[in-house]
Amino acid sequence: MNTTEIISLLPYQAPFLFVDAIETVSENNIKGSYTLKKDEYFYKGHFKNNPITPGVILTEIMAQIGVVCLGIYLMKDTIEKQYKPSIALTSNSIDFFLPVFPNEKVTVVSEKEYFRFNKLKCHVKLFNEKEALVCRGYIAGMIK
Amino acid sequence: MTKEELITSLKTIVKPYIQDEEAFNNLTEETDFINDLKINSANLVDVVLDVEDKFDIEIDNDSMEKMLSVKAAIDIITNKLNQK
What number is the ipTM of this complex? Predict the structure, then answer.
């Protein structure tokens, strides 16, 4: 399965698709990126006249690239044509270190902790363009 | 290991994942992980992984699907320990 196929199988669309590209993927890890557009819908309210990317959105970017994309890749041997992934976030614990502003490109690096009985748990980090750590933590979800 | 010791170990393992305190305090062999303790399916995976670590056994997919109650868990753990 190549990276374009993975992205095409994602069950999201605008304004809630947060994956632009996957750089590398393997059985144990994945690396991908997303550029926050200037006019993302949430900047209108977060905050008033002071657009900063919400932590829940950074978490979502980490989950979409680091857990869902990796999960789809790990399912590659069992999935068939017309496969529609069924996914659910089940837990996350993230620490935040730096803000992310409109037009910034962020890169997500995720390492698999385990994938057992359809539960995928990963240790995920998100970096900005200066390669500084923005946030990191553990995210787990169920995927079928 | 006696059945009581197994139940005590299981109680320690499931404790972080339960929602229903009363069902947990009154836990018996008949207690169901999902319906009584209200453990979600993701945390049920954690219970199984913790059981593997605690008893140094491997739980396969078939056993995982059956491991829905204290009684089923005890049967599976006992079987796996006897196979060692």
Answer: 0.88
* Touching A: B residues 23-82, CB under 8 Å: 40-43, 45-46, 48-49, 61, 64
Q: What is the pLDDT along chain A (144 residues), one digit of tens a residue?
A: 899 999 999 999 999 999 999 999 999 999 999 999 999 999 999 999 999 999 999 999 999 999 999 999 999 888 777 788 899 999 999 999 999 999 999 999 999 999 999 999 999 999 999 999 999 999 999 998
Query: Is-cis flag, bond preceding A96, omega within 30?
Result: no
Six-digit token string for B11: 């109680």
Angle at which helices B3-14 and B70-83 cross, to 10°: 120
CA distance to partner chain B, nearest, from residue A96 (Å): 25
**This prediction's pTM:** 0.93
Locate the DSSP E strands across A10-67: 21-25, 29-35
Q: How far apart are CA A34 and CA A10, in angstroms?
A: 14
CA–CA dist B57, A41 (Å, integer): 49
